[in-house]
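Translate structure to sequence.
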C-alpha cells in the first residue's frame, strides 16, 4: 500500500462502539423484527406484536444504564476530536425522554389498536413507531450536520405515515398531508442552509463548524450568514414555533390519539434537540443573531399557543385533543426561552439544562393527560371537553389524576413539578437579562390558567344524565399509573429532575 493510501485507509476504517449506539440500534432491530414477524403471525395473534414492541422500547431504554459511567464517541475522524456520534450526558437525557415517551405512547397504542377494529394495520403501525423512535434516539447523539438531518428524517418520515395510517379516514389523510408538506418544507430549508454552511466552512462536524465559521473568507461571509439563518428557520418548523405551527391542531386531531401523544412529546423533543445542537455547538459565534430571534419566537409562540387554546372556549363542542394541541404550541414557547437565554448567558449549559428539565416534566404530565383522554375517548368518540363533565362521578381515580396533570401543566400546587419547571425557565430568562421575556411568560402563564382550571373544574361538576363507567384496560392503566407516580414523585422532590438534566455540551 502506498504512503498516500495508508492515511486514507486509516481515516476510512473505524471501529464502532456498539454499546454507545445500542439504544437506537435496539429500537431499529426490533422494528425490523416486528415487520418480518407480521408476515408469519396469524391475525388472531397480531396483538403480540404490540407487546414485543413495548418490550423492545423498554430494552432500548435499559441500554442507557451502561452509558452513565462516562462519555463515549464513535465514528470519529482519525487523528481529530471530530466524531459523528457522541453519547454524553445531554444525549442520554434526551434519549431517556424519547424512548420513555415512545414506550408510553406504545402502551396507549396497544389499547387503541384493539379498539380500532382493523382500521389500523398492526404490523405496519409498530414498524413505523419503532423506526421513528430509533431516529429520534439517534438525533441527540448526532455531532455532524449530515447525521443530524438523516436522524431527523428517520424520525419524521414514519410519523407522516402514522398520522395517515387509519384506513378510510379523510380527516386522518388530510392531517398527514398537512404534516408532510410542512415538514418537507422545513427539511428543504434546512438542507439548503446546511449546504451553504458546508460551502463556507468545508466541514459538517459541529465542533469544526463552530471553529471555522468565525474565520470564513470575507467573500463567503454572506453565504455563511444565509446558511445559519436558513438552518435555524428549518429547525423552527420542526419545533412547531409560530408562525410554523399551522399544522399542529389539525394533525393532532386527525392522527390516531397515541400518535398525537407521541408527536406532542417525542416529535417536539426531536425539533428542540436539533435546535440546541446547531445553535449552542455549531453556531455559538452567531449568538447575537439567533439569541434575539429565538427570544422573539418564544414570546410569539407562547402567546399564540395560549390565545389559540383560550379561543377554543368559544364553543361547547371543542375537542380535548385540539385544546391539548394548542397547549402544546404554548408549551413550545416556554421551551424556547432557555435556548434563547443561552445566547446571553455565561453559563449556556445551565440554560440548556433548564430546557431539558422542562421537557422532561412536560413529557410526563402531557402523556398522562393524553392517557386519560384516550380512556374517555373509548366511550366518547368525539372526545369533546363537555364529555369530561362529571368524570369524578364516573371514574374518581381518572378524574383526580387528570386534575393533577392539568394543574401540573398550569404550574399550580399540588402539581409542584409544573411550578418548579416554570420557575426554572423563568429564572433562566431573568439571569440572562431577558426581563421583558420573563414578563411575557408570566402573562402567558396567567392566560393558560383559565383554560386549564376550567377543564379541571368540569371534572368535578355534576354529570349530565346517567354516569358512564370507563373500563380501564391494562395498558392504559399502566400508562396512567406510570405518569401519575412519576408526576407525584417529582412534585415531592422536584430538584431531582434538574440534577438529572444537568448536562455538558462542550
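Result:
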Amino acid at each position: 500500500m502506498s504512503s498516500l493510501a495508508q492515511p486514507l485507509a486509516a481515516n476510512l476504517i473505524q471501529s464502532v462502539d456498539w454499546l454507545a449506539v445500542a439504544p437506537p440500534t435496539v429500537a431499529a432491530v426490533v422494528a425490523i423484527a416486528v415487520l418480518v414477524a407480521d408476515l408469519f403471525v396469524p391475525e388472531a395473534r397480531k396483538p403480540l406484536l404490540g407487546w414485543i414492541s413495548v418490550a423492545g422500547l423498554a430494552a432500548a431504554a435499559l441500554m442507557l444504564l451502561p452509558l452513565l459511567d462516562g462519555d463515549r464517541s464513535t465514528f470519529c475522524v482519525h487523528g481529530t476530536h471530530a466524531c459523528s456520534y457522541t453519547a454524553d450526558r445531554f444525549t442520554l437525557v434526551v434519549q431517556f425522554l424519547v424512548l420513555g415517551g415512545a414506550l408510553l405512547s406504545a402502551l396507549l397504542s396497544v389499547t387503541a389498536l384493539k379498539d380500532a377494529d382493523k382500521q389500523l394495520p398492526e404490523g405496519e403501525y409498530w414498524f413505523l413507531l419503532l423506526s421513528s423512535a430509533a431516529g429520534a434516539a439517534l438525533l441527540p447523539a448526532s455531532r455532524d450536520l449530515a447525521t443530524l438531518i438523516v436522524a431527523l428524517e428517520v424520525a419524521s418520515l414514519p410519523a407522516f405515515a402514522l398520522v395517515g395510517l387509519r384506513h378510510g379516514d379523510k380527516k386522518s389523510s388530510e392531517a398527514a398531508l398537512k404534516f408532510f408538506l410542512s415538514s418537507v418544507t422545513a427539511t428543504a430549508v434546512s438542507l439548503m442552509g446546511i449546504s451553504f454552511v458546508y460551502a463556507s466552512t468545508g466541514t459538517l462536524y459541529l465542533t469544526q463548524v463552530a471553529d471555522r465559521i468565525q474565520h470564513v473568507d470575507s467573500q463567503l461571509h454572506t453565504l455563511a450568514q444565509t446558511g445559519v439563518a436558513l438552518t435555524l428557520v428549518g429547525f423552527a418548523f420542526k419545533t412547531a414555533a409560530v408562525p410554523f405551527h399551522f399544522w399542529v391542531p389539525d394533525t393532532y386531531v386527525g392522527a390516531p390519539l397515541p400518535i398525537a401523544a407521541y408527536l406532542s412529546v417525542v416529535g417536539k423533543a426531536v425539533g428542540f434537540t436539533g435546535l440546541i445542537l446547531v445553535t449552542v455547538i455549531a453556531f455559538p459565534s452567531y449568538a447575537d443573531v439567533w439569541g434575539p430571534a429565538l427570544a422573539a419566537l418564544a414570546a410569539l409562540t407562547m402567546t399564540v399557543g395560549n390565545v389559540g387554546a383560550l379561543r377554543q372556549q368559544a364553543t361547547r363542542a371543542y375537542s380535548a385533543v385540539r385544546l391539548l394541541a394548542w397547549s402544546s404550541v404554548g408549551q413550545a414557547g416556554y421551551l424556547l426561552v432557555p435556548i434563547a437565554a443561552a445566547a446571553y448567558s455565561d453559563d449556556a449549559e445551565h440554560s440548556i439544562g433548564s430546557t431539558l428539565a422542562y421537557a422532561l416534566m412536560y413529557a410526563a404530565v402531557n402523556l398522562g393527560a393524553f392517557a386519560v383522554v384516550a380512556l374517555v375517548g373509548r366511550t366518547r368518540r368525539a372526545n369533546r371537553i363537555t364529555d369530561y363533565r362529571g368524570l369524578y362521578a364516573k371514574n374518581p381515580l381518572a378524574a383526580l389524576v387528570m386534575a393533577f396533570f392539568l394543574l401540573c401543566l398550569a404550574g399550580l400546587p399540588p402539581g409542584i413539578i409544573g411550578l418548579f419547571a416554570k420557575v426554572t425557565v423563568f429564572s433562566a430568562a431573568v439571569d440572562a437579562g431577558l426581563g421583558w421575556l420573563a414578563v411575557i411568560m408570566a402573562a402567558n402563564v396567567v392566560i393558560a390558567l383559565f383554560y386549564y382550571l376550567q377543564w379541571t373544574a368540569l371534572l368535578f361538576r355534576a354529570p349530565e344524565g346517567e354516569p358512564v363507567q370507563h373500563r380501564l384496560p391494562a395498558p392504559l392503566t399502566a400508562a396512567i399509573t406510570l405518569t401519575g407516580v412519576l408526576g407525584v414523585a417529582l412534585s415531592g422532590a422536584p430538584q431531582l429532575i434538574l440534577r438529572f438534566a444537568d448536562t455538558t455540551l462542550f
